[in-house]
Amino acid sequence: MKIFAVNPGSTSTKIALIEDGNVVFSKNVSHDAEKLAQYDGISGQLPYRKETIMNQLQESGISLEGTAAFVGRGGGLLPLEGGTYEIDDLLLSHAVTGANGVKHPAQLGPQLARVFAKEYGGRSFVVNPPDVDELQDLARLTGIKGVYRNVHLHALNLKETAIRHAESMGKKYEDCNFVVCHIGGGISVSAHRNGKMIDGNDIVGGEGPMAPTRCGAVPVSALLKYCEGKELKDVKALCTQSGGFVSHLGTSDALEVIRRGKEGDRQAQMLWNTMIYQITKYIGAMAASLHGKVDGILLGGGMVYSEDLVGQIKEACEWIAPVSAYPGEFEMEAMAAGTQRVLNGEEEAKQYTGIPVWNGFDF
Predict the structure, then answer these.
(1) Largest Cα–Cα distance in the chain?
(2) Are 117 and 68 in contact (CB under 8 A)?
(3) What burial class does residue 88 get, using C-beta atoms within 10 Å of its C-beta: 0-12 exposed, 13-18 middle, 19+ buried?
């Protein structure tokens, strides 16, 4: 059984062909940045991206004939519960227009999957897109009337890490409680209870720990003072582009920050340790949201290759539950695995309604 996965990024698209659970081909296909900039919006890039991918497949001698399913990284969708969704006309149209208001190359994931499925046959899916919202009601209110919390997280990698760890324990994800972190360019810290991600931080809204390019949570009064005389767009950029390591040191490279710290740069050393400290605080908060009933603390993402980071988190948090490290990410495998579960009949494909899973309280 062949599954073809596509994961569009800003100037490249990751592709992978998976057969019976094994990756038989993978490539990060580069796209010309100047050419991408010529198109009207993200969705306008679709024909060029597809052409570039097809050229790469042809060069590599890879055929998509006989592929059972095509799966794309979801993007542009309204808040929905986790799972695997069959791409229908409504889901496709929301991906094309970016119905959630967040413009991101992931919008092209459903579009590419659907185009390939139409051309080669087979079904098309998205799995646990970034817009997964399974918050418990207690996590939604804030101290300002009319301002509510929502989340944007690395849902795909977070949930797949939890599913795999549960399997390693001989259990189902739906029968476990986990605190799951993705620690990379952005940092997600989330609480999973019986198969639902009931709380977490909004990584595009300025919540959670600081990260290489993100400011994380900051005091509101201090931020308001900081905003004086500044453009709103520049302040917003602190949430996703110019905060964190970039704001302090002018780099988003964690390896450079570590190196500078080891060479005696006290600011770099403090910044690195402060980021880890903030991660551990949010792990503690997520453990509290689970009432201390935690089967494991799971760490994924590129920075988890750092033994120092994992060691510090273990020292601070292993009294809560065992800490397990899954360095890097397996987004392609996660998309294929979610698709495989549907094809095998282990799960039913969900239908995208286009109605946000939560739209306010009745008071």
Answers:
(1) 60
(2) no
(3) middle
Q: Which residue has the tokens 């991906």?
A: 95
Q: Strand 187-193 to strand 12-19: parallel, antiparallel, or no bridges (unpaired)?
A: unpaired
Strands (E), the chain: 2-8, 12-19, 22-30, 69-72, 84-86, 123-127, 177-183, 187-193, 196-200, 296-301, 323-327
Rounded Cα distance between 190 and 198, Å, is: 8
Give the alpha-carbon dihedral of 148, 129, 96, 140, to 10 degrees. Answer: -10
- Across 134-166, b (16+ Cβ under 10 Å) vs e yields bbeeebbeeeeeeeebbbbbbbbbbbbbbbbbb
Residue with tokens 């101290």: 143
Label residue 348 by pLDDT band (50, 70, 90). Answer: very high
Share of the chain above pLDDT 70, in %: 100
pTM over 0.70? The answer is yes
Burial class (CB in 10 A: 0-12, 13-18, 19+), 56: middle
| Distance between CA atoms of residues 72 and 124, nearest Å | 8
Catalogue all structural domains in the chain, each as residue range(s) with its CATH number: 2-134+332-343 (3.30.420.40), 155-328 (3.30.420.40)
Q: At what angle do helices 108-120 and 89-97 cross, to 10 degrees?
A: 140
Cβ contacts of residue 5 below 8 Å, gap of 6+? 14, 15, 16, 17, 18, 70, 71, 72, 332, 335, 336, 339
Q: What is the mean pLDDT of residues 54-69?
A: 97
pLDDT at 260 over 90: yes
CA 16/CA 85 separation, integer angstroms: 19
Rounded CA-CA distance 352/53 in Å is 27
CA distance 240 to 262: 27
DSSP letter for each residue of 154-183: -HHHHHHHHHHHHHHTTS-GGG-EEEEEEE
